[in-house]
Amino acid sequence: MAEPLLDVVGLEKEFSARGAPPVRAVAGVDLSVAAGTTHGLVGESGCGKSTVARAVLRLIEPTAGTVTFDGVDVGDLSKRDLRRLRARMQIVFQDPVSSLDPRMTVGTIVAEPLDVAGTGTRASRRERVGDLLDRVGLDRSFARRYPHQFSGGQRQRVGIARALAPGPDLIICDEPVSALDVSVRAQILNLLRDLQEDLGVAYLFISHDLAVIRQISDMVSVMYLGRIVESGTREAIFGQPAHPYTIALLSAVPEPDPVIERNRERIVLEGDPPSPADPPSGCVFRTRCWKAQEICAQEVPELIDRGQGHPVACHFPEVVNPVSLTSPTVTR
Amino acid sequence: MNPVLELNELTVELSHAGQIVRPVEDVSMTIEEGKVVALIGESGSGKTMTALAAMGLLPESAHVASGAVIVDGTDVAGLSNKERRRLRAGTMGMVFQDPLSALNPVYSVGWQIAEQFRVHENMSRSEANERAVGLLRSVGIPDPERRSGEYPHQLSGGMRQRVMIAIAIALHPKVLIADEPTTALDVTVQAQILELLDELRHKQGMAIWLITHDLGVVASLADEVILMYAGRAVESASADRYFSKPRHPYGQALRASVPRLSQEIDDLHPVAGTPPPVTAFPSGCRFHPRCPYAIDRCRTEVPLLRSVDDALVACHRAEEIHG
User: Fold this and answer.
1) Three-state DSSP class for A30?
2) Across A263-277, B201-215, B279-293, least confident range
3) Is the pLDDT of residue B142 over 60?
4) A25 by DSSP, 3-state: which?
5) Is position A235 within any domain?
6) What is the interface pTM, i.e. ipTM, of the complex?
7) Which of A168, A184, B93, B165 is the most exposed place for a label (fewest CB within 10 A)?
8) For residue A171, what are the domain limits?
């Protein structure tokens, strides 16, 4: 296999505040993204997925671990080299309202990464902005308008155009469709996929929505309380899930089909995820896991393949056919 | 079956920047005892405004322009605020999307539940507190004696929503109005709340009016579905009927927009464009600018809900396009 475009090894991030115990938001994450593909990172709120995104871009400094982009260790770079590298690594945020400066025209917003990099002449940059707006399905004339004149979906298109401007190899998409209505969400997902086909851009796609992750990802990693608990191809995660948390997540999502819903026995996890400031010993999922044994409190399960065909961080992994999750055969 | 809540050609007017607009127009629906009816649609479709009108909780700038809201046999339009409040207490409970802003931050959650027993049932303080603890237990809050003394900020999102539900069902309403009750929650916590709502319906025979954009949530709970678009109901059918075969082009487009967990879908086929703002609802059928089947008639003539097979559909071409 070719060298991955992005390779994250042992990433950790601890936040500390005076007088409070440190919060280990990310507790050792490994993941990689191959050029031109999409790696979906899925988990519930507070699991650390957005912290991973920020640490990869070095918008925050990781506490430990390495981030290698196209063979270059991002942690070693000077500010100046980092800025240059960021042209190749862009980000699209969840909230297209707060991530666009309301006082700037859309043209200025999209041109900013080009102006910073000093690409071409002023006129050629303006031309490029028009092309980019066109590419994301907006009218070229919109460059003169302000963000508030657009709908949520259009603003997210502006955010994508801005990310595309410097010609990145990787775009980190942090919940890019979560604030959007159903029909608009589908438009944006289709746009992201078309852009990948045409431009070969790779995505690290972060979402809490499993159906969206399934729709867009080639590889999928499932996060819980700062750790990746299962990782594999889309087919593996959705076809042969083996970590109890992945299985519970898949079982928890209601399907838009009353016949499926009537006939399925849902695995309902009790309680809430524990606080990352005070994580359980051993396996972080054990406090909500129906399979937990003594060893789970003592030993952190490594993220390795124990015969499931893909890495699973569980002492007792067991592949479940997800079809059975939609039928009454699964016991709680 | 007795209807517990009926809306009869309800129209809501709102003054917006000096202009009178109608975020809800001619919406009718009936919720019978023990049934779950889902009102679905994207943002701006008027679903929340419809619920607020039914509760008598419209913002200052809005009012019911015409139509009736009949609660447990009584038309609430003619009632004073006080009479309406009394009627509402025993018949309707409401749960909102964001429990943190709906709960009072300076009172303990037990106090907020007990308040209702003190005000509406003249209970003593200690008796009311005891009832509050029992109610917290019944909505699945562990250690309810301790939790009842805690404040909203000390609880997780899922627990806050359970407290909201406890407050809403305290006086045994006939219908629970749940506006996006799980939208702010994580999926594993959402599953817990859906289970609780399902229990309320089956064990207590409570009717639920569910207002949401999440089609999965609808499929897991609802008996009937009403689809709204730009202030009007465009389809009304049993949940099974709606999900197996939506008849309105907008319902079909929504279905083609939703990624599934249970199956690989190669292509999503979303309808182009975005829902119109209330200040610019199109003429005729409000969906016509986005509809692949639109003909001249759709631009000029408002289609009314009419019976097509087992559903009510507001589309001039409903018979031709079910294909």
Assistant:
1) strand
2) A263-277
3) yes
4) strand
5) no
6) 0.85
7) A168
8) 6-224
Is residue A276 predicted with pLDDT exceeding 70?
yes
DSSP one-letter string for A54-88: HHHTTSS--SEEEEEETTEEGGG--HHHHHHHHTT
Are residues B248 and B227 in contact, defined by beta-carbon separation less than 8 angstroms? yes
State residue A326's pLDDT score. Answer: 56
Q: Which of B222, B262, B270 sits opposite A326 (nearest CB)?
A: B262
User: Across the interface, which of B158, B216, B261 has its CB nearest the CB of A272?
Assistant: B158
Let me know if domain B3-98+211-285+307-313 sits in CATH 2.40.110.10: no
Cα separation, B148 vs B267, in Å, equals 49
φ, ψ at B4 (rounded to 5°): -95, -25
Tell me: do A54 and A166 sit in the same domain: yes
Higher local confidence (pLDDT), A332 or A171: A171
Measured between beta carbons, which residues in chain A are less than 8 angstroms from residue B244?
259
Of all residues in chain A, the one with the smallest CA distance to B223 is A258
A37 and A129 together in one domain: yes
In a domain, A330, yes or no: no
Per-residue DSSP letter, A304: B
Partner-chain residue, chosen from A183, A214, A252, that has the shortest CB–CB distance to B191: A252
Residues B134/B127, Cβ–Cβ less than 8 Å: no
Farthest CA pair distance, chain A = 67
B121-132 tens-digit pLDDT: 899 999 999 999
Q: Establish if A187 touches chain B: CB-CB under 8 angstroms.
A: yes
N residues, chain B: 323
Q: Contact A211/B260, CB-based, under 8 Å?
A: yes
Asked if the Cβ–Cβ distance from B215 to A256 is below 8 Å, we say yes
| Residues in chain A within 8 Å Cβ distance of B248 | none
pLDDT at A290: 94
How many residue pairs from chains A and B have C-beta atoms closer than 8 A?
132
Per the CB < 8 Å rule, is A208 touching B186? yes
Flag if A183 and B222 touch (Cβ within 8 Å). no
Distance CA A95, CA A103 (A): 17
Q: In this complex, do B268 and A215 lie within 8 Å of one another by their Cβ atoms?
A: yes
Give A270 to chain B, closest Cα distance, Å.
8
Quick check: A255 and B219 CB within 8 A? yes
pLDDT band at residue B316 under the 50/70/90 scheme: very high
Q: Is residue A69 part of a domain?
A: yes
Across residues A203-232, what is the average pLDDT?
96
Q: Which residues contact A141 (CB under 8 A, 6 or more apart)?
A: none
In the beta sheet, which residues pair with residue B228? B233
Within 13 A of A60's CA, how many CA atoms are on the CB side? 17
Give one DSSP letter per residue of B84-123, joined into a string: HHHHHHHHEEEE-S-HHHHS-TTS-HHHHHHHHHHHHH--
Domains of chain B, by residue range, sit at: 3-98+211-285+307-313
Closest CA of chain A from B306, distance in Å: 24
**Three-class SS of residue B190?**
helix
- Residue A265 sits at the chain B interface (C-beta within 8 Å): no
Instruction: Show which of residues 11-40 on chain A sit within 8 Å of chain B, judged by CB atoms.
Output: none
pLDDT of residue A325: 62
| Nearest CB partner across the interface for A183, out of B217, B244, B254 | B254
A268: nearest CB among B156, B191, B219: B191
B195–A260 CB contact, under 8 Å: no
DSSP state letters, B215-269: HHHHHHH-SEEEEEETTEEEEEEEHHHHHH---SHHHHHHHHH---SSS--S---
Across residues A307-322, what is the average pLDDT?
92
